[in-house]
Specification:
2 domains, five-stranded parallel beta sheet, 10 strands
């Protein structure tokens, strides 16, 4: 029987496979990108796929030298009206069955622009709404509270950026190989971190399962991981969780804090590292339920310390493990008392199209 733990543990090896086969994995998307004079990339998606697209935004911009915009599929479908041939459009969805995403992709095609579908299910209905459809290399994941899918989705965009930048001679072969070496090192850190995260959870199991309200704080590339972490805990534990950029948290949301509230801080080793450490220490004035996820040694049982020297754009896939582990244990323990009503609600709202029977995974 599949579990979230299984998919968490499969993530490092799946990412290594994708890195070693990045040219084949991204070829169709890179070919299409290099055919045009694209000055911008726009990705439309929902849920974990939205978070997976948002997380590598700054890495892609840094490597490929184009502006990346990530939007919810609903917004594109109902509000965006200006489309152009200099924007590279991508629709992303792990199941390939999101109605908003597929309809938004079709809207852009009807406007005369090409659209790439990036999915875990190339036989899903998304294929009818894309000029090119590719599997982002997640392997198989059958549990809707995705973990491996998020990580491999983030990685896909990084690999696309590297392959396209190399093809267009934006980066040198040496720079390309150095990036890939760092990505492989990231996989090693994730693998090494999994038992460390598990031990951290078990040290704090009672409070990590019984909290009632939490804020997850991130910044830069870590903002996508913060959003994903909050979503995972909402889905698997029925907890109230909200993600904020850590400075925005100081502009109002912090007023909600009291000793009964919980704060998770994702320290991604970026330019704001000292500011994050200051926040970690000062927020204890308001609550003791503060969990710092960092690579800096901290003498605190609630701090999760995974020592590494990864770039901030890569450290996010280490940091998100904390949220995924909480969710995986929560998924084992919690039974949604309104499960049948929730299923009926989701079916009625029809956010996704029915399965065709050919899909593998979600």
């Amino acid at each position: 029987m599949e579990t979230m733990f299984q998919y968490i543990n499969e993530t490092p090896d799946q990412c290594r496979i994708n890195i070693h086969h990045s040219k084949e994995l991204t070829k169709e998307v890179v070919d299409l990108f290099c055919e045009g004079d694209y000055q911008r990339v726009m990705i439309m998606s929902s849920g974990s796929s939205y978070h997976a697209a948002l997380t590598p935004k700054y890495f892609v911009e840094k490597v490929l030298k184009v502006k990346v915009e990530v939007m919810t599929s609903f917004t594109v479908l109902h509000y965006e009206s200006v489309f152009d041939d200099h924007t590279f459009y991508i629709g992303m969805g792990q199941s390939g069955r999101s109605n908003n995403t597929n309809q938004a992709m079709q809207k852009i095609r009807d406007a005369g622009c090409k659209v790439v579908g990036v999915t875990g299910n190339v036989d899903a209905v998304m294929k009818h709404h894309a000029d090119v459809i590719v599997n982002w290399g997640m392997g198989i994941e059958k549990i809707g509270f995705v973990t491996k899918g998020y990580a491999t989705g983030v990685l896909f965009y990084m690999l696309f950026a590297l392959e396209a930048a190399l093809r267009k001679q934006i980066i040198t072969e040496a720079e390309y190989q150095a990036y890939k070496d760092e990505l492989l090192k990231m996989c090693d850190v994730i693998e090494r971190a999994i038992p460390v995260v598990d031990a951290w959870y078990k040290r704090n199991e009672k409070s990590l399962y019984e909290f009632t309200r939490a804020h997850v704080l991130g910044y830069g590339s870590g903002m996508g991981a913060a959003l994903e972490g909050a979503l995972k805990m909402q889905e698997t534990m029925g907890k109230a969780c909200t993600a904020f950029e850590f400075e925005e948290f100081l502009h109002g949301p912090c007023y909600e804090l009291n000793p009964e509230k919980t704060v998770f801080i994702l320290d991604t080793s970026g330019a704001n590292k000292e500011r994050v450490q200051q926040l970690y220490h000062e927020v204890h004035r308001l609550t003791d339920e503060v969990y710092l996820i960092t690579n800096v040694p901290v003498d605190d049982e609630k701090a999760l310390v995974v020592e590494h020297d990864l770039d901030e754009h890569l450290s996010v896939l280490v940091n998100v493990l904390a949220m995924q582990m909480i969710a995986a244990y929560g998924n084992q323990k919690w039974v949604n008392p309104m499960l049948e009503k929730r299923i009926a609600f989701c079916d009625t709202m029809a956010a996704k199209s029915p399965k065709t029977g050919k899909e593998i995974g979600l």
